[in-house]
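FIELD: query
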Amino acid sequence: MSLSPSLLAFLRDLRVNNTREWFAENKAVYEKEKKGFDAWTTELISEFADFENMDGVLLKHCSYRIYRDVRFSKNKEPYKTWFSASFSEGGRKSGLMDYYVHIEPNGASFLGGGMYSPTPEQLAAFRQEVDYNAAGLKKIIKDPVFVAVFGEEVGESLMRIPKGFDADHPDAELLKKKQLFFWKKYTDLQVASPDFTQQLISDAKVLKPFLDFLNAVFFEKEPFIKE
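FIELD: result
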């Protein structure tokens, strides 16, 4: 199945009418579009199961609520202006590095994944792995196919190399990373096209070796290979 252009239209309207009153008046439209997105998310779980262990993973383990938590935010708008879901073994609360799918109008849709909010322990493990085996990581993220799909990495870096590492370390730029993730953006036309699901899954398969690398470093998890 494919996503309906009406889903993007609803999200555009929500962006300019982000109030509880408007949302209540358009609740039926939201429920219709959310039902379509949920059906698509369920289909994606099946698609991801071809190359990830999705045993027992259901819609509720992947999807996110549209309601924003505004308690500690300066932005008091009550609703997210996107639909999203995450896919991994055990679902989005497993802690594993997962495939994040974000659907938002005006070319803001994307598939992303990587080291976004690492714990201090994960960051230390990542730097140790870079120190010992940067070649393994670079082989993945510098592969021509990977670069063609995801381009350059995204994320914050330290100004100076972390303590404990030589200032002229050959992989100093990787050691400085506080975040390391990648995303592939999609136009609204791509999102609404009949072949979008297969395009997204094809891109996810390119991302898989990078997520496998991080999950091995953080959790000593062996890559899933479907028999």
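FIELD: remark
The mean pLDDT is 96.
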